[in-house]
Specification:
Largest sheet: 9 strands, antiparallel
Protein name: Glycoside hydrolase family 16 protein
Organism: Lyophyllum shimeji (Hon-shimeji)
Oligomer: single chain
Pfam families: GH16_XgeA
Radius of gyration: 22 Å
InterPro entries: ConA-like_dom_sf, Glycosyl_Hydrlase_16
CATH architecture: Sandwich
Keywords: Hydrolase, Signal
Length: 390
């Protein structure tokens, strides 16, 4: 008689877990943070910024990528050297070796985001065949902006329709435009000095067949589920509330426009957004005598870039299905050069049905609260019948 009762308890537990949890598949943190990332090692030929993104040996050797005494990963622009005219300043771009498919969730806790005149930082994702495989901008802003912007970039045919519970402000709606389909964060302290002064915060992105959803919480407002999560535990998003940006699949077929995504951190300078006169001059035109982004910032001494760094507690990748990526290197010592090998991974996250954790409003995916209660009542009723028979 005990065995059927045990199976009923397992059924209830499985239902609760299905409703509440994503499984952790990779934690990037501490001394092993840089395991599983590739360093770009070349000029910025993507956004035409005035930087050279270093390879891993030069990045570690020059102190632009390291783990600090707090155990946080640092990615920074060179602020120690003089740059001559017609030269570029050294910086960092890293990309995960693992690609994460539909059914994935990413969370990053950061203490500091790069900012300053000419500075253009981003935490984003891209498909292996960029730009055809889509792009998700989770953290991106320029110069002295005081708020984060979130966006999707796709081939023509993906349109942003604003869901009623989106907390951010929709701007461009056509995701194939150069800017992508953009949502501006409205919560305070999502970028610049305010972000750092508040102790940083957490960003999360849900990559689901039902849509792409992005959240931001300043340090004082981080949900308990994230505060209590560990580097090995699943994550419960039921206390997250409405997203900052919501891109529902009703007007953008996610599996059509997005392939499995690699995660990317980079910092560039000037380029085709931060250096545009219309963007640069109103806030940074007095940075130097010429009014030109490159001339007045990139060249000369580097101390103007003292705030141009990421400080990252962790990046965690979760999935509703699939397999975890296999680490490709041992943990690295602080600022110790190493060689990383690029490997081909099976994409993580394979769910092609709406995740039960998708949060379009009051419902989470295909399971609304009433449906969840129905499933629980069925399981509890089974347990009750077994107990009565005992």
């Amino acid at each position: 008689m005990a065995w059927p009762l045990f199976r009923s308890f397992v059924l209830v537990f499985s239902i609760l877990r299905m409703v509440l949890s994503y499984d952790l598949v990779r934690d990037y943190s501490g001394l092993s943070f840089y395991d599983g990332w590739d360093f770009y090692g070349g000029y910025d030929n993507l956004t035409l910024g005035d930087v050279v993104w270093l390879n891993i040996d030069d990045a570690l050797g020059q102190g632009l990528a390291y783990v600090n005494a707090a155990g946080n990963a640092i990615l920074k622009v060179d602020n120690m050297h003089n740059v001559e005219f017609n030269q570029k300043r050294n910086s960092i771009r890293i990309t995960t070796q693992a690609a994460y498919a539909v059914g994935s969730l990413w969370i990053t806790d950061m203490v500091h985001i790069p900012y300053g005149c000419s500075v253009w930082p981003a935490f984003w994702t891209m498909g292996p065949k960029w730009p055809d495989g889509g792009e998700i901008d989770i953290v991106e802003a320029i110069n002295l902006m005081d708020h984060n912007q979130m966006a999707l970039h796709t081939l023509p045919g993906c349109i942003h329709s604003t869901p009623p519970n989106q907390m951010g402000l929709s701007k461009e709606l056509d995701c194939s435009q150069p800017s992508g389909c953009v949502v501006a964060e409205t919560a305070p302290n999502s970028f610049q000095a305010g972000f750092a002064a508040a102790g940083g915060g957490v960003f999360a992105a849900q990559f689901d067949v039902a849509g792409i959803f992005i959240w931001f919480w300043s340090r004082p407002n981080i949900p308990p589920s994230i505060l209590h999560a560990t580097s090995s535990s699943p994550i419960d998003i039921s206390d997250w509330g409405p997203p900052s940006a919501g891109f529902p699949a009703t007007t953008c077929n996610i599996t059509q426009f997005f392939s499995p995504q690699n995660l990317v951190f980079d910092i560039t300078l000037c380029g085709i957004w931060a250096g545009l006169p219309a963007e640069y001059l109103p806030v940074c035109g007095n940075s130097g005598p010429t009014g030109i982004c490159y001339n007045d910032n990139v060249i000369g001494p580097g101390d103007r870039y003292n705030d141009a760094y990421f400080e990252i507690k962790y990046v965690r990748a979760y999935t509703t299905g699939g397999i975890a990526p296999t680490p490709t290197a041992a943990a690295v010592a602080i600022a110790t050069p190493q060689t990383m090998t690029t490997v081909t991974q099976r994409p993580v996250g394979t769910a092609l049905i709406p995740s039960p954790l998708f949060y379009p409003g009051g419902a989470r995916g295909g399971l609304k609260h009433g449906e969840v209660m129905t499933l629980l009542c069925v399981a509890l009723g089974t347990m009750g019948a077994l107990l009565w028979r005992l």
